[in-house]
From TrEMBL:
Residue ranges annotated for the Cytochrome c domain, each copy included: 89-174
Protein name: Quinol:cytochrome C oxidoreductase
Keywords: Heme, Iron, Metal-binding, Signal
Signal peptide: 1-24
Keyword flag Heme: yes
Domain of life: Bacteria
Keyword Metal-binding: yes
GO molecular function ontology, one term from the record: heme binding
PROSITE patterns (UniProt xref): CYTC, PROKAR_LIPOPROTEIN
């Protein structure tokens, strides 16, 4: 059964492919104004067309989740040395992170007498215990990352660089309580009470 088509219907249907063809001819998407790599630009204040990458950007193919920086281990063993440069800024940053995340339980001096330990009725280990003083620095990174006993993981709360800063500051806290006097210089000995 076929439907008879009027002349006006045939004309309208003949225009349809032409309209679709004309709509598809727009070249706006192909001929957009753009900058080539490293081309100067008047749009941004620094005069560059390429924007600097956001902080903590990792280039594709360079991230190694098993590196000492992100795992605290090297070939399965806990690292004994800090995988970043130890600076006064790193220790100061580690102190602020320690005070925010660790001091509520471990206390400001690492003695295990923080507010949560006091009010929560839990036994928090002192960071000045012989076992913890002799532990490799990677141990602290591992504990912050994975948690231990009643301490939960801080991996999603503290970035890896901050975890290393906390580990370095923890080591500084330990040294502040257990440095052998013979290891100090004369100027440092003079400052002692």
């Amino acid at each position: 059964m076929s439907f008879p088509m009027s002349k006006s219907t045939i004309i309208r249907l003949a225009w349809l492919p032409l309209c679709l063809l004309l709509v598809a001819c727009h070249t706006d998407m192909y001929d957009q104004p753009r900058y080539s790599a490293n081309q100067p630009s008047d749009f941004f204040e620094d005069g560059r067309s390429m924007r600097p990458p956001p902080p903590n950007t990792v280039a594709m193919g360079t991230f190694d989740p098993n590196s000492a920086m992100f795992s605290g281990r090297l070939e399965g063993d806990l690292v004994a040395e800090l995988p970043m440069e130890l600076t006064a800024e790193l220790l100061a940053h580690g102190q602020t992170r320690y005070n925010a995340f660790c001091a509520p339980c471990h206390g400001l001096t690492g003695a295990g007498n923080g507010v949560a330990a006091y009010r929560g009725g839990m036994q928090v280990p002192t960071l000045h215990d012989e076992r913890l003083r002799t532990a490799p620095i990677g141990y602290y990174f591992d504990v912050i990352t994975n948690g231990v006993n009643r301490m939960y993981s801080y991996a999603h709360r503290i970035p890896p660089e901050d975890r290393w800063a906390i580990a370095a500051y923890t080591r500084a806290l330990q040294l502040s309580q257990y440095t052998v006097a013979e290891a100090l210089h004369a100027e440092e000995l003079a400052e002692l009470p």
